[in-house]
Amino acid sequence: MEVSQIDDGFLGGNLEATFTFVVNGESRTWVNNDLGTGTHSIGITYLVPVPADSSTITLSVSGVEDDLISDDTLPGFTQVWGQAQNWGIGSQAGSASDSNITYTLHYTITCARSRASVMVSRVALQAYGQQKAERRKATNVSETTLIAWSLDRLRREGWEVIAATDREFVFRGVGNFAGLIERRFGHGRRQEPRARQEDPKA
Q1: What is the 3-state secondary structure (H, E, C) of 78-146?
Q2: pLDDT in tens, 141-155
Q3: Quick count: other Cβ atoms within 10 Å of Cβ 53?
Q4: At what angle do helices 143-156 and 177-185 cross, to 10 degrees?
Q5: Region of residue 127 (left: phi > 0; alpha: psi -120 to 50; beta: else)
Q6: pTM of the model
Q7: How far apart are CA 60 and CA 76, in angstroms?
């Protein structure tokens, strides 16, 4: 998100903003309590089925600026991509502006033609969860909770568990997120994705 102008009223300063992104009914939020001008990374990924020629991909963006007295609604926009627009594949952008903020949201739509099965060890999931705990400054977090945090993040990235043992999980999804966790946190156990063709996704 590129923010070119903000105005937090007579107190000045940056915005405490919450943006909501909805893609084909799936809603996710992004919170930035110190939103100023410049470029901000959001890092949200959606996996959207496009089963028919009549299918569309709809992105809706809305936001709220949190104030002590009353919240201000931030401007948003909606974009719809269908077959006539090749479902928006490529780099896209949408802009909105009002007295509080002027911004442009940049995003990319890609076509995922296959899903991969990737094996991730419990060691890697626990280590990844531990990193999240350290960022949250959480202490004495159980192994079960650490793994649960990792599983939740993988789920939000579009990966599903298709098998599990005491030592490892097998995930199915699109992209390289699960493989990156294993390669980075699996103590040298390099695990390449084993691709298997599934229904086309976008």
Answers
A1: EEEECHHHHHHCEEEEEEEECCCEEEEEEEEECCECCEEEEEEEHHHHHHHHHHHHHHCCCCCCCHHHH
A2: 999 999 999 999 999
A3: 7
A4: 150
A5: alpha
A6: 0.58
A7: 7
Backbone angles phi, psi at 79, to 5 degrees: -130, 140
Tell how strand 15-23 and strand 57-65 pair up: antiparallel
CA distances to 31, 37, 104, 153, 164 from 3, rounded to whole Å, are: 15, 5, 7, 27, 43
- Locate tokens 């100023």: which residue? 36
Residue identified by tokens 């296959």 is 114
Tokens, residue 15: 């915005």
Band (192; pLDDT cuts 50, 70, 90): very low
**Straight-line distance from the first to the last Cα atom of the chain, in angstroms, rounded to the nearest whole number:** 22
